[in-house]
Amino acid sequence: MVTIKDVAKAAGVSPATVSLALNNNDKVNRETRKRVQAVARSLNYIPNARAKALVEKSTKIIGLVIPEIHNPFFSEMAQAIKDYLQDSDYSIILCGTDNNPDLESKYINMFKGGLVDGAIFSCITNVNNEVVHDLARNYLPLVYIDRVAEDEEVIPMIKSNLAEGAYQLTRHLLDLGHRKIAFIGRTDEERFQGYLKGMQEAGCPVIESYIFDQSYTFDQGIAAGKTLLTLPEKPTGVVCFNDEVALGLTQFMVKAGRKIPTDLSVCGIDNTVSRYYNPEITTIDVPKQEMGRTAARLLLKMIKGEKIRAEERFIHFPVTLIKRDSTAPPR
Amino acid sequence: MVTIKDVAKAAGVSPATVSLALNNNDKVNRETRKRVQAVARSLNYIPNARAKALVEKSTKIIGLVIPEIHNPFFSEMAQAIKDYLQDSDYSIILCGTDNNPDLESKYINMFKGGLVDGAIFSCITNVNNEVVHDLARNYLPLVYIDRVAEDEEVIPMIKSNLAEGAYQLTRHLLDLGHRKIAFIGRTDEERFQGYLKGMQEAGCPVIESYIFDQSYTFDQGIAAGKTLLTLPEKPTGVVCFNDEVALGLTQFMVKAGRKIPTDLSVCGIDNTVSRYYNPEITTIDVPKQEMGRTAARLLLKMIKGEKIRAEERFIHFPVTLIKRDSTAPPR
DNA sequence: AATTTTATTTAAAACGATTTAAGTTACATT
DNA sequence: AATGTAACTTAAATCGTTTTAAATAAAATT
After folding, report:
1. Nearest residue of A to residue B2 by CA position?
2. Tens digit of each residue's pLDDT (9 = 90 or more) over B149-203
3. Which long-range CB contacts under 8 A does A12-20 form with residues at least 24 apart?
4. How many separate domains does chain B show?
5. What backbone torsions phi and psi does residue A158 show, to the nearest 5 degrees?
6. Chain D: bases < 7 Å from a protein Cβ
7. Cβ distance A87 to B96 under 8 Å?
8. Which B residues 155-214 touch A at CB under 8 Å?
9. Within a domain: residue A255?
10. How far is the CA of A28 from the C1' of C3 (A)?
């Protein structure tokens, strides 16, 4: 491995000069600079990132904490974050918690050790709320995406209004004439609140919802479909936690001989895979890429120590109802 | 920030003793060890990862270089790699190249600087072949997934037999009676070779294929569908580069009034989203998770400096034809 | 010619850990 | 009592950079 000393020796200068020269500092003579740079190139010298990180107190890495790596919603956001950070030469450490609080706190401890310069959290668990706030207060800049911070002074939030989204879907179904509408997802999540609000406004009974602790996948949708068939009173419409669940549920129902939307209207949330189905599934669009970019921009700002204005600390992104072919009036 | 010196002072010992005590070295007296550990805990001491990395010449990070973050094939593999590395306390830096050779070589340079302890490459570009081999030879342990190394002595390869997969699909269509079969994808890729072989064996003409330079997405499938409709002689069967492309193409065809599989038989490759469609799409299963695990295992072994046996340097994983409802005899 | 100013260069400290070899005790052996 | 040995502890070197303050050399001013 060729170090700065090797370059110094070969160029006949001191390591200090090499460092300055390679960073194009004009304290060092133009000619010396060029010469040192040439020598460094000829020796294939590459500054050691680990040594650099130690002295600069920065690894040029940010942590991205998401529940599931293998989930189009998060991977689309991750892609946007990556694209944004590219120009600033930041890299991303990918931390998938699998909705496991222990894993999450393991990552948090890594972060405390100075592995990253900042982090973006996008998780549903609230178990480590205290710990995360401590992390933000005493260790690193942090930004939340779609997770509510107790104190946005400490952790800015990038939010999409998923409660509003679920509400719009519920309203959409109600407007079509549905009265028996089920919700598939977790009740401790704001999506459920939106559904609840819609049902209560219309004076309709809430239909027992199905809670998944771990993940929100196609297979969970199938499982939910099975449960749905066992209900004494069959719903005519259903709002799903996300698109994948909606697709799984729909696929199951179709195989079970139900017609979509004739027998059952289905809605997804997040507009990822919903257009992959036939019929295309009605859903709520969330500006994932814009949210990712915004989070990245904000985090970089915080890392640089720039002031974050109050109105930047809580950014709400609007959601959009996308009516497709999986919803229709009940029979 | 609390450092090892602070702990040393508070515990009334030297930094050396603290270091040894915290690493549970039995050179240091049992009682001293316990005391130091207690003091460290009470001060919330966390060893600085950057300093540690410098002295240990290891960041405990591995690089994962994939073409697209937002692609279920890769994210499923990434998930498996993450799961495997978890136990060894390794983290993943996610490097999405977007099939851009410049971006790829940017990552390579980062790696040369010692940012990671090893890397897994899963890319289709071959532009940086030389550079990557140099990286493997002179800097870090490297493993390939589904990419062919010139010299597997230097870079072990985890391969799925995608040529065989494409061949099986083509045979499947031929056996159903199809003669006009199109291939959607890149011709410089081994999938095309498998298709080619099948067509040649059957004495059927190859139907012009559509090349995507950047990504293999649903939208690219739609674009391919449009092109397909303009062909003078309509194919009755089509083999797509991957599932997402197959889904896009199918969705387009259905909207254009074609019946699947009656009017057109469609095949995907990689078994990711193909079962999301109605009808479910025939595809080739690739053991993504097993491949990811294997790559991670091999890489860790190399990082530890263990000997890699010759038969471990080129591991071929079998693929499986999954017949579903998108393929049938031509009309 | 002596002094000040300016332009370059560099020695040395710092970053915060690990590790090696040397130093210090305490205890057993002769 | 002198010596050897085992059990701990620590001083100091090391990792490879950056940065600051000091040193040096050259030019400009008096």
Report:
1. A113
2. 778 789 999 999 999 999 999 999 999 999 999 999 988 889 999 999 999 999 9
3. none
4. 3
5. -105, 110
6. 7-12, 14-21
7. no
8. none
9. yes
10. 26
